[in-house]
Queue: 3 jobs
Job 1
Amino acid sequence: MRVRVGEERWSGRVIDLRGVRERCGVEFDATRVAEAVRSDHAESEAIAIDCSDPGPVHEHVGLIRSGMDVQLRAALAAAARSRGRIAPQADELAAVRERLDALDAPEIDLRDARRRVADASDEEAALRERVATLQGRVQALRDVSGKASEHGGTVEAERAVETKRAVESELTEATRRLSEVETERIAAEQALARARERAAANRERRRERLRLQDRADNLRRAAREHLAGTVREPFEDAREEAPAEVTEASVGEALAVARVAELDAPVVLGRDVEAFGSVDVAARWLDAPVICP
Amino acid sequence: MLLVVTYSQAARQTLRNVCNGHEETVVQRFGRAALLEATHLGAFLALRLRAKHAGDVQVERTAPFNEFSDAPEAVRAAATAYEDREHPSTSYAKFAVGTDHPAPESMRDAEL
C-alpha cells in the first residue's frame, strides 16, 4: 500500500504513522485513517491511502481500537468468506435474490376511485331525499289547488296552481339530476371494482415479494451461522494466542477475527498495537497489512 | 371491523408496533394482518399505516356473517349434511353427486 499524509509518502505492508501528526502538521485520528482506507485514492485529501479494496471483514475489524463493538457472528461469517468459504445456502439465496429483482409491483392507489364512489353516493342520497320532499310537496299542492277550485276561490286556486307548477318543474329537474348522479355512482362503483381487481393482482406480487424477502433473510441468517461455525475453532485459538496485554474483550475478538480472516487491505490498529511491542509484530501476528495511526 | 393486511417487512413491523401500543383497539392479530375495532381510533390507526406504507397496506371493512340472510338454504343444508357424512374421507365433490346438494363448481360461481 501507499500512504500520503500532507506531502510525506510511505509505502509497504506495515506503516507506522505515530508521530507524523506533529511532523506534518496534519490533524488526523484513527477514524480518519480508516476512512482513507475505504475511500478511493483522493489526491485532494490531506491523507490518501492507496491499497487493495477492503472487503466485508473490514466493516467489522478494519479499525481496531478500544471501546469498539464487534458483531461477532457477522464478523466471523465475513472472515470465513474472505477465506473462500461458501455457505450451502448460497445458491438458493442467489436464486431468491434473482426472483426478488425480477418482481416489481407498481404503486397502487385506489384513493381517487374510492373518493369518487363516496362523493357520488353522498350526492345521490341527498338528491333522493330532495326528490322525495318535492314529491310530497307536489302531492300536497295538488290537494290544495283541487280544493280551491272546488270551492270556486279563483285567486287562491290560481296561486296554488302556480306554486304547484313551480314545484313540479323543480321536481322534474331534481329527478333528472338524480338519474345523472345515479349513472355516475354506478360508473364509479364499476371503476372501483376494476381498480380493486388490479390491486388484488398487484398485492399478490407484493405478498410473494414479502415471502421471498423473509426467505432471503432466513437464508442469510442460516448462511451466517454456518460460515461463522466454520472458523469458530481457529478464532478461539487466535483469541487464546493474542498478547496477554490485550484486556478488552471486544479488541481481543476483533484481533482474532482479523487473524482468522484473509486480509488484503490494511487493518487500522490503534493503541493496542503496543500489546504486540511493534507494528511489524502485530502485522505478522495478524498476517495482514497494518497502519498504525 | 377493519381488516388491515400488510405486504412488506416495514409495514408488518409498523403494524406490530401499532398493535402493541393499542391492544384495546386490536380485536385479533394474525402475523402480517390484524382486525381492528370499527371505531374512529381503529380507522385512525389503519389510515396512519396506509399513509406511511401506501400500497403495502390493505384496509377492508368486515361485516358480520348471518347465514340465514347471507347464504341460501341449499348451501346451509349442504354444509350440515356433509359434516354428518358416513365416511370422513369422502370429498365434498363426490358426496354431492346424486344428491340435491349443490356441486362445488356451481357454488364457486354463485356470489353471496
Job 2
Amino acid sequence: MNEKFHRSFDSLQQIFDFTERFYTAESIDPRHRFAVNFAIEELFTNMVKYNAGNPHRVLIEMEQMDGELVAHLTDFDVDPFDVTAEREVDTESPLQDRQIGGLGLHLIPKMIDSIDYDYDEPARRSRITFTKALR
Amino acid sequence: MLDIDFADAGVVMLKGRLDASQSEKAQTFLDGLDQASVLDFSNLEYISSAGLGVLLRTQKRLMASGGGLKLINVNNHIMDVFRFSGFDHIFEVQGAVDP
C-alpha cells in the first residue's frame, strides 16, 4: 500500500488514516501500531522541518513480509541526511539540563527493529526503510 | 486530533493524539497553567517527540516557580516512550491500572 503526502504537519492525520487502513487490511496486531506510527511521524516531520520549501510530496509505502512490517519513506530532490547516524542525546540529565528537541530520531531505533538509509545521488532521492517484527 | 481541557478538581484531561500537528494547541493550553498540575492521560492514545517537547517546556517553566506536572493513567506505549527518553526521572508518572 502506498500514498504520497504533502510536506506539512497537517498531513499527519491523513498519514495516520493511511496507516490505519493498512493495519486493518493486513490484520496487524494493535500492539505494534503505536511504534510504527511513532517512527513514521518522526521521520516524516523530520523531512518537513528540514526541507520546508520543497514542493515534492513524500511517498510512504507499507507492506507485510516474512513476519515483518516493512515501511519506506521516500523524499525527492533533497540533500542527503542520514537519519541512522548516531545522535547522542542525554536521557539521564536533570530537568534543567534537558534540551527541547532532538529526541525523535534518538527514540526511533528503540521502537522498531531495523532502520536503513539510502541516498540516490543522481536522482537526489532519500529513501528510509524500517522494519518492525510482528511476533 | 487532540482535546485538552480542565476536568473536575482542576485536573487537565487529554484525549486523542499529541502529535506534531497538535503540539501547538497543547502548548497554548499548558502555558496557561501557573501552578503544580495533574495531567490525566487515560484517554491519550499517542504521543510523539513533539508532545514530549510540550511537556518538557511546561515542566521547566513550572519547576522554576516551585510547581511541576504529575502525569497519571499513562498507557503502556506512552510509558515506554517516557522510559526510553528518561522522562520517568524528570516527571512524576503514574501508569494506567489494568482493568
Job 3
Amino acid sequence: MADENKPRHPDEIDRQIQRLAGELRDRGTAPERDLWTGIDRAITAAEQHQIRPHARWSWPRMAASAAAVLVLVFAGWTSVQQQISTEAQSPLALLESPVAAESDETNGLAAIDLALEELNLALSDDPENRSLGNLAQMLHQSRGRMLRQNMELRLMGG
Amino acid sequence: MSTIRNAFLVAMMAAPLLVASASADQEINETVKAKAHGLVTVENIAGSIEVIGWDRNEVKVEGRLTGDAQKLLLDGGKKTRIKVKYPRRSKNLDGGAELVIHVPAGSRVDVECISATVEVRGVNGTIDAESISGSVAVSGRCESVEAESISGDVVVDCDSDEVSLASISGNVEATGGTSEVEAETVTGDITLKFDKFLGLNVESVAGDAVVVGDLDSGGNFGFELHSGTLRLTVPSDVSADFRVETFSGGIDNGFGQKSRKTSKYAPGRELEFTNGSGDARVRIDTFSGDVIIKKN
C-alpha cells in the first residue's frame, strides 16, 4: 500500500507510458482495407457540391419564375390598393359606421378589464373589503351590459 | 369613327348608373291615424330622427331617404311602427334617412338607431331612445326617459319622474326638476344638475361625475366610480348620512369633517358623517378616484 502511494519520478512515468503505447501498437489490428480512398472521395464530392456553379436557367424555369413574381407583385398591389381605398373613406363615414361603435365597445371593454384587474389585485389583499366588492360588482355588471349591447348591435347591423 | 362608337358605348353603359344614383333620394311625406297614448316605434340605421309631440291623433313622417336607405315602412293603428329598410349587408352604408316624425303628445315613444342621431321633444309619455354611435337628446315634460348611446353623447333636459341615462364612451348630461336618476358610463363623463334627486345611482369606470342638487329625505344615493373623480354639490342644510370610502383616492369634504386612512398601511381613505337629521342615505365608493363634496 505504501509503495502505491509513493511518488514516482517523471522519467519513470514517461518510460512506462512509452512501454504501454508500444504494447498497444503491437497489439492493434490493421484495417482490412485502405480507408483513405473512401474518405478522399467523400471530401472531393463535398467540395464539388459546394463550388458547383448554378445550374443553367432553362427557359421554362425562367418563365415559371417570372409568372410567380408577377402574381406576387399583383397580389401585393391589390392589397395595397384595398388598404388605400379603405383609408380614403372620410372620417365621418368611418365614425358613422357600426365598426366605429364596435371599436368604442372594444375600448370600453378594455377599460373595464383593466379596472377589474386592478380591483382583483386589491381584493386579493383585502377580500373582505365591502367597497371593493361593490365596485367589482359594478364592473361585472357594466361588462355584461356591454356584451349584451354588442350582441344587439350585431343583430341590428346584420 | 371607332372612337365615337366606343364613347357612345361607354355612355350607354354609364347611363343606368347615373339614373340609379339620381333616383336614390326619396322624399317622404306620409300620415297615419294613431291613438292619443299609443306606442310609436322607430327603427333606423343611419341619418337623423326627430320626434316631436303634437296635439293631433295621427303620426306624420316627413323627410327623405338617401343612398342605401331603400324604403319607409309605416304601420298605423294601436301601435305605430316606423322602420327604414336598408340592404341586408348594412356596414359602411351610404346615406340614410332624415326623418321628422310628429306623434300624439301622449305617445309612448321607442326609438332604436345605429349611427343616426335621435332627438325627442314635446312627448309626454315614456321615452326610450337608443343609438349606437349617434347622439341622443330628449327634452320636455314626460313620464320617464331612458336614453342610451354607445359612443354618442346623451343629453336630457326633462321634467320627468324617472331618468335613466347610459353611454360607454359618450358623455351624459342631464338637467331637470325632481327625479329619480340613474346614470352609467364606462369612459364618458357624467353631469347631472337637478332641483332635487328622489334617488340616485351613478356608476362609471373611468369617467368623472359632477352631481348638483338636493337629496330627498329617505332616498338612497349611490355613487360607484373606479378611477373617475366625483364632485358632489348639495345644499348646506341637506339631511343626509354620508359614508365615503376610497381604495387609493383622496376625499375633500366641504362640510368640514376630515377623512381618515382606512388602515395604517393602505393608501385608502374613509369618511362618515351626518348632516342634519341624516334622512338621506349617501354611499360613495371609488377605487382610485377622488371624492369632492361641496355645499352650496
